[in-house]
Design a protein that fits this description.
The complex is a heterodimer of chains A (about 250) and B (about 300).
Chain A (H helix, E strand, L loop, with lengths): L16 H28 L6 E13 L5 E4 L9 E6 L8 H6 L3 E11 L2 E6 L5 E3 L10 E14 L2 H5 L9 H9 L4 E9 L2 E7 L17 E11 L2 E6 L5 E2 L1
Chain B lengths: L1 H23 L4 H5 L1 H22 L8 H7 L13 H16 L3 H7 L1 H8 L2 H18 L4 H27 L12 E4 L9 E5 L5 E7 L2 E6 L13 E3 L2 E3 L6 E3 L15 E2 L1 E4 L2 E4 L13 E2 L6
Antiparallel strand pairs in B: 1-10, 2-3, 3-4, 4-8, 4-11, 5-6, 6-7, 9-10
Classes of the chains: A alpha+beta (about 250), B alpha+beta (about 300).
Chain lengths: ~250, ~300
């Protein structure tokens, strides 16, 4: 078999040396380019500051409207009191256990997810919620007036750090499934409101948002309504008929 | 999830660049040999991405993941929030089909033209992947770098194809025909020893004329394997050797040497007034044609 220096034949015993060198250079450059791209894209992603920080046990009063919340009494690190959103494992809420214990003092145990000023406890199945024999005291909600806010509707669990990315179009279907399953819906604002970047979503009467909200999940939207403070959490009582995409 | 998705997108784009790169610079031809293997790997990477998406984004919910994939977002009538996943499903279906039919068995079973046409759907898959990635990249403020990558990659792939198409168009001008229907190719010096010359026919077919040991022969330019351009190949061991995958054909009858059975059409040549002339009517594949000796050339 005679071959020429610039002609490659796959079944030949040996590739021409100049061609082999050229292809090695192309493959090497492509690999280096791929690594650089991977590093650049990895850094640019929405890694967020959120994460599952570990197991936690908390005590407080369980409220179920608009979504299950644990109202923890004020302490040194939370002088206003601390409201922690509650969800079940997977794309589920805490289920009927929440209704049974609504308004009562409870001890909640599970995995704590934190992202900025947003805390969520993923309540352990079976014995994650336990009634406590103590008085149920919570501070009243403080009205902060009517607001029109730009942002994105997400589920409080993924956006807190369980999924990456936990917002945007890529996460839209996941967020819809989470919210449909009972995971609290939050509004991630484009600019801080009263120093908060997340607001718990509600309907105008303080109940859970209507099913029509699902059409707006993960889109850039403008919402209008009353904002109130419960402990260190802002609750957005949205006038849903006025909600619109930007 | 994102890493596998980005990787599949870049691999697919690289695969599409191999063809035009090889057309523009023959040193890239060796990459053609492994293009199919690379394609199958891309399909596996894309499938891994899809299984992660199904397991995470569509899993852990009361709804079946496959049902959720089709029902969680049905906003097909607007751009904002468009179910971009469907572009991914479409592309994955094509990639899986191409991977499943990548073996030479399917090439022989479907015939080269049908197999080639089927595998051209890779362009539909790539377009869908661009839409799939671009919709996500351009709607998330933190995805600026991904947006730049998608636009750059799209420009490179389209640009290379346009350049290659322009290069092919330049060399595709049919030669003038004589009064008896033969085509005047030009002086024998146009065909270098051991090399081929591609002659486009009026019916859009191409013929490859080769000079071997001072004698000229003409066979169909499209390789029976994958329609590779034989005229851009070389003569190795007395046979025309395809630049794509090394398939070989004898010059005088267009047949692959035993034990192989592929056969190509041959064409009649003649020398008149110092010019090569080609009869554009093909002989049945495997027909013997006596090579034409070039005057003054050493045997």
């Amino acid at each position: 078999m005679s071959a020429e220096a610039d002609f490659f034949i796959g079944w030949a015993a040996r590739a021409p040396r100049p061609l082999a060198r050229f292809i090695a250079m192309v493959v090497g450059a492509s690999l280096i380019g791929l690594v650089l791209l991977a590093v650049t894209l990895g850094r640019a992603s929405d890694a967020g500051a959120g994460d599952i920080v570990g197991e936690a046990t908390m005590s407080g009063v369980l409220q179920t409207a608009p979504y299950p919340l644990l109202r923890v009494a004020p302490d040194q690190s939370h002088p206003r009191g601390h409201s922690v959103m509650l969800a079940g494992e997977g794309k589920y809420g805490i289920g009927p256990r929440g209704d049974e214990l609504a308004g009562k003092p409870v001890e909640a145990r599970g995995a704590l997810v934190k992202r900025g000023d947003l805390d969520m406890l993923i309540v352990a199945p079976d014995d994650g919620l336990r009634p406590l024999d103590q008085p149920a005291t919570t501070s009243p909600a403080i009205p902060l007036g009517r607001w029109r806010v730009n942002g994105e509707i997400c589920d409080g669990k993924c956006n807190a750090g369980v999924m990456r990315p936990g917002k945007g179009l890529a996460h839209r279907a996941c967020a819809s499934l989470c919210v449909s399953g009972g995971v609290p819906a939050v509004f991630v604002t484009t600019a801080p409101l009263e120093s908060a970047s997340f607001l718990l979503l509600a309907d105008a009467n303080g109940g859970p948002p209507p099913p029509a909200m699902l059409d707006l999940v993960a889109l850039p939207v403008t919402l209008e309504g009353e904002v109130e403070r419960r402990d260190d959490m802002l609750v957005f009582r949205v006038d849903w008929p006025r909600a619109r995409t930007r | 999830m994102r890493a596998f998705g980005s990787c599949a997108f870049l691999m697919l784009s690289f695969i599409l660049c191999i063809g035009p790169l090889a057309r523009l610079d023959k040193r890239f031809l060796p990459l053609l040999y492994n293009r199919r293997h690379f394609g199958v790997m891309t399909s596996v990477v894309a499938l891994t991405h899809a299984s992660h998406v199904l397991g995470w984004y569509f899993g852990f919910s009361p709804v079946d993941p496959y049902e959720a994939l089709l029902s969680a977002n049905t906003g097909f009538t607007r751009l904002a929030g468009f179910p971009f996943e469907m572009f991914g499903v479409f592309a994955l279906a094509i990639l899986a089909t191409l991977a499943a039919t990548s073996h030479d068995f399917w090439l022989a079973f479907l015939t080269a033209p049908v197999w080639k046409a089927l595998h051209m759907s890779i362009y539909a898959a790539w377009t869908a992947v661009i839409a799939h990635v671009a919709l996500v990249a351009m709607t998330a403020p933190y995805n600026g770098p991904l947006t730049i990558v998608v636009i750059t990659v799209a420009i490179i792939v389209v640009g290379l194809h346009l350049s290659a198409a322009r290069a092919v168009a330049k060399s595709d001008t049919p030669a003038p025909a004589t009064t008896d229907g033969w085509i005047v190719v030009g002086p024998p010096s146009r065909v270098a020893e051991g090399r081929g010359l591609v002659v486009p026919l009026p019916n859009a077919e191409n013929v490859a004329i080769f000079r071997h040991q001072g004698r000229l022969s003409a066979i169909a330019n499209a390789c029976a394997h994958q329609n590779g351009p034989l005229g851009e190949g070389r003569i190795v061991d007395g046979c025309v050797t395809c630049p794509w995958h090394g398939f070989q054909y004898r010059l005088e009858d267009g047949a692959a040497p035993p034990p192989f059975t592929e056969k190509l059409a041959t064409y009649q040549l003649r020398l008149r007034d110092g010019m090569i002339e080609l009869d554009p009517r093909p002989n049945p594949p495997g027909t013997y044609v006596e090579p034409v000796a070039v005057e003054g050339a050493g045997a």
